[in-house]
Amino acid sequence: MIKIIKKKKGKTALTARAIAEELGVSTQPIFTCFHTMEEAEEEVYKAAEKLFHEYTLKGIQEKIPFLEFGMQYIRFAREEPELYRMLFLEKRDEKHGALEEMYHSQKLVRDSLKQIYRIGEEEADRYFRDMWLVVHSLATLIVTSGCPYPDKEIGDILSGFSISMCKAIKEIPGFISGEYDKDAIFRDLITKER
């Protein structure tokens, strides 16, 4: 059924007739397996989530898990735009959506962030959240045909943002809690000579 979403461009293409066509049967067996189209849609969501997790688990198993997670997220958007759109750009319910997936993924990479960057849990969660927002934005641009950047440049963008976040977390007291003088920090930065 996931092929229907890919081939026919989107969740609205998922009909009993389209499923029957894909399987080479009449529509009657479809309603033998599924009592409603909502049940069929739920199975498609589960299959799409499983495929997305296969992509991101590859990243998590790499030497720098959080960077590779981000690149796999981008890859999923490039290779499976209709599934990405269905999973992350259409709110299914309060338990499923982009932010819920972010929280799930955050738990998966938290320990590696703490270990590699030598930061605490609160810092790791803030780092991941902010990095995820950048990755999600780039992936959304890809899916909506608005991203002009190749993977190499996306890697550079993510690396630059990662360095900035790590530096802020480690060098600006109160950064995580938001209790720091933003104006003073910016004033110091813009008055420094290169």
Summary keywords:
single chain, 194 residues, mainly alpha, elongated, Tetracycline Repressor, domain 2
Description:
The chain is mostly helical and 194 residues long. The chain has a single domain (43-191), classed as Tetracycline Repressor, domain 2 (Orthogonal Bundle). It is 73% helix and 0% strand. The protein has ten helices and no strands. It has helices spanning 2-7, 16-23, 28-33, 37-60, 65-79, 81-89, 98-117, 121-143, 151-171, 182-191. The mean pLDDT is 83.
Which parts are unreliable, with pLDDT below 50 for 5 consecutive residues or more? none
CATH fold call: Tetracycline Repressor, domain 2
The fourth-level CATH homologous superfamily is Tetracycline Repressor, domain 2
Write the element-wise H/E pattern from the N-terminal end onward: HHHHHHHHHH
Count of alpha and pi helical runs: 10
In the CATH scheme, the class would be: Mainly Alpha
Radius of gyration: 21 Å
Distance between the termini: 57 Å
Largest sheet: none
**Molecular shape:** elongated
Helix content: over 70%
Mean pLDDT, to the nearest integer, reads: 83
Write the layout of secondary structure elements.
Layout: H1 2-7, H2 16-23, H3 28-33, H4 37-60, H5 65-79, H6 81-89, H7 98-117, H8 121-143, H9 151-171, H10 182-191
Helix pairs in contact: 4-5, 4-6, 5-6, 5-8, 5-9, 7-8, 8-9
